[in-house]
Amino acid sequence: MAKIIIPTPLRGYVNNQSEVEVKGNTVKEVLSNLCETYPKLKSYVFDDEGKVREFIRIYVGDTDSSELDIENTEVDSNMEISIIPAIAGGI
Amino acid sequence: MELLLDNHAYQDIYEHARKTFPNECCGFLYGKEHENRVIYQTLEINNVMQGDQRDKFQIGPKDYQYGEKYARQNNIDLLGIYHSHPDHPAYPSEFDLRMAFPYFSYIIISLDREKMLDIKSWQLSEEQSFEEEVIHFAKVVQ
Question: Which chain B residues are Cβ-neighbours of A91 within 8 angstroms?
Answer without folding.
Answer: 24, 55-56, 85, 88, 93, 95
